[in-house]
Amino acid sequence: LHAAFVRSPRGAVKVARTVVAITVLLCFAVSHAPGACTALAVFEAAFTGLFLLLYLLRLDKGLPWLCWPLADIFNSVIAALFLLVVCLFAIIVQTNHGTVAGGVIGLILLVLCVVDAVLLFKKISFNRPRGSDTTAK
């Protein structure tokens, strides 16, 4: 178990993103929001939770042929785009208070997705060997 990951900035954002995604899911599920809202919240909570487990259990080291941070960036960017559309829809339609709350919290989740993508982008080494945090001279 890689407990130090949770204390890192990337780990803290990933944990916060998981908790907020579950909160959005609960808001949408309890308020009987339209299916797209609930489905997006389910997928976001599941994928974020899976990436969190992947990094906590160091499973990303077992499959080094796949650039896990890059896959995580794609997940974050696509989730942010879908969250923007679905959460604005939930806020504009205003079916009930739960749907509006889910939409507003979903926009907070969108910000966390962008922050996560930026932190991951800084980690990817395009011209350096993997695992190296120093710049090439």
| H-E order | HHHHH
Q: Hey, roughly how much beta strand do the residues contain?
A: under 5%
**How many helices does DSSP assign?**
5
Mean pLDDT: 88
The structure class reads mainly alpha
Radius of gyration: 16 Å
Which percent bin holds the helix content? over 70%
Biggest sheet layout = none
Distance between the termini: 34 Å
How many domains, as an integer? 1
Number of β-strand runs: 0
Membrane topology: Multi-pass membrane protein
Subcellular location: Membrane
Main location: membrane
Pfam family, one: MARVEL
Structure notes:
- The longest helix is centred in the last third of the chain and has 27 residues, at 97-123.
- The protein has helices at residues 3-7, 9-30, 35-56, 68-93, 97-123.
- 74% of the residues lie in helices and 0% in strands.
- The protein has one domain.
- By secondary structure, the chain is mainly α.
- Helix 2 (9-30) packs antiparallel against helix 3 (35-56), helix 3 runs antiparallel to helix 4 and helix 4 (68-93) runs antiparallel to helix 5 (97-123).
- The chain has five helices and no strands.
- The relative contact order is 0.17.
